[in-house]
Amino acid sequence: MNGHPKSSVLRYVIFQLSVLLFCVGVAKSQVKKSIEIGAPSQAILFVTNASDKSTDFMMRLHDQKAKEIIRQVPYSTTKLLVTKTDAQQLTFIVNKSKWTLDVATLKQRNAMILFDGQSRPKVIYESQRYLQAAKPILTNNKQSSTPQKALKYDGKLFFDSIAAIPFKPSRQYAEGIISRSSLPIYSTQKKGKYDGTYISQTFTGENLEKPSGMITTVYQQGKELSANNLSNGINFYTKYFYNKWGLIDSIQQLQNSKWSSSTIYQYLPHAILITNPERRSASIHHLNDQYQVVREESIHFVYQRMHWVDYRYNENGQLIEEVSGLNDAIENRRLYYYDNLKADNFSSWQVFDATGKLTAESKIAVQGNESTYLFYRDGTLELKIVSKEQGDYQYESTVFDKQNKITSKTIQTKKSSSNSQ
Predict the structure, then answer these.
(1) Which Gene3D superfamilies does this one have (predicted)?
(2) CATH code of the domain covering residue 94
(3) Model confidence band, residue 150 (pLDDT cutoffs 50, 70, 90)
(4) At what angle do helices 56-72 and 130-139 cross, to 10 degrees?
């Protein structure tokens, strides 16, 4: 594997395999963001669709009334979820009954969705009625009037502590982060070979004739400047901002030309903090003296939970183990194997559950400019990906299912400099 420019294909393959391993209903989740809530949990959700059926005044009134209710429930739990959401599909389940609401089809732009955990959800359009309509659910939940006395993860204390650390990244610090951190965001920058505009098209369907999605990514000496993802008529645009040393400052995301979300990076002597402006959650990447990520903690201050991953490396700096879990419980363990001690990329990996049972594994075989990735779940071949390098980080990658039938094909090409902007 060493010396082979496979990083671009490998990133694509890792994404494909991760989706298959950890997600349910992959094809649908890429189309619409969704939420599923089942009894006995209750929910008060505030949603907005893309129609233009309400005035700016009505939108402000919706936001005002939503905030009044959200303030009454500062800590959502598994029993009650109170939040504004950009999910486009909401599913509610009570025993064998199931109701699905498509936000895009609501009669008005703004609405409140009430789910009492016992019957069909209600849609409330009149903002002035929000509080009165939500009172039965609010009354049934004790935490609606009094916040939790003791928080395991205290958001205010956390961010106040971070703000108290005086630290400005230096050139040496930045070079260490970019070259050794193993963060995916820096995987192309540390090699510095991506340069220009790359177009990646994915073809699906029986005949693989029309692209189902297209991603246009602009690089400058390895740094990813922007990515434009057009899929199913929806345009997702991501813009990356860097400081003078080449470290990520922030990532801004737009959907159909409207601002969607922000991701903010903050650097500490032995950690990288990734959060959003609302500070409802934070991801902390802890670093050792070699600037390798040794632990990742993703904390959600509202739901009071933490997902974590511990990383272990060998003496050559190769990642050999990941152990992940939720709060105090271990969920799985992943081991990585290499063809030799100098290889940049692993040649196989295995995943074990909390009991030590082997649940998934992947094997990679390289022959010339062609790489074959095999993914197994519980000993059965689930997915095969064949990728062909075509020079200058261009490639063609074909995905086969367990019956060896082609399900998709992705082609990445570099836009000629004469046509680049």
Answers:
(1) 3.90.930.1
(2) 3.40.30
(3) low
(4) 20
Whether residue 213 sits in one domain with residue 315: yes
Q: State the Cα–Cα distance between residues 372 and 10, nearest whole angstrom.
A: 11
The residues, any chain, with a CB within 8 Å of residue 31's CB and separated by 6 or more, are 231, 232
State whether 49 and 160 are in the same domain.
no
* Phi (first) and psi of residue 125, to 5 degrees: -95, -30
Selected residue with higher pLDDT from 122 and 210:
122
For the chain, the domain total comes to: 2
Is residue 404's pLDDT more than 80? yes
pLDDT digits (tens, 9 = 90+) for 323-380: 999 988 999 999 999 999 988 889 999 999 999 999 999 999 999 999 999 999 989 9
Residue-wise DSSP of 322-342: EEEEETTEEEEEEEEE-SSTT
Q: Are residues 229 and 334 in the same domain?
A: yes
Q: What is the tally of helices (H) and strands (E) in the chain?
A: 6, 25
CB atoms within 10 A of CB 6: 21
Confidence of residue 278 (pLDDT cuts 50, 70, 90): confident
Sequence-ordered list of residues with C-beta below 8 angstroms from that of 85, at least 6 positions apart, any chain: 35, 45, 46, 47
Report percent pLDDT > 70 for the chain. Answer: 84
The verdict on 183 and 300 lying in the same domain is yes
Q: Given 86, 111, 144, which residue is the final one in a domain? A: 144
Start-to-end CA span in the chain (Å): 34
Say how far apart CA 296 and CA 309 lie, in whole Å. 5
User: 221 lies in a domain?
Assistant: yes
Shared-domain flag, residues 85 and 214: no
Do residue 360 and residue 391 come from a single domain? yes
Picking from 144, 169, 189, the residue at the C-terminal end of a domain is: 144
Confidence bin at 101 (pLDDT 50/70/90) = very high
Measured distance CA(198)–CA(413) in Å, rounded: 6
Co-location of 352 and 274 in the same domain: yes
- Give the residue numbers spanning the domain of 41: 32-144
CA-based nearest residue to 177, from 62, 74, 271? 271
Q: What is the pTM of this model?
A: 0.63
Q: Give dist(CA 369, CA 74) in Å, integer.
A: 55
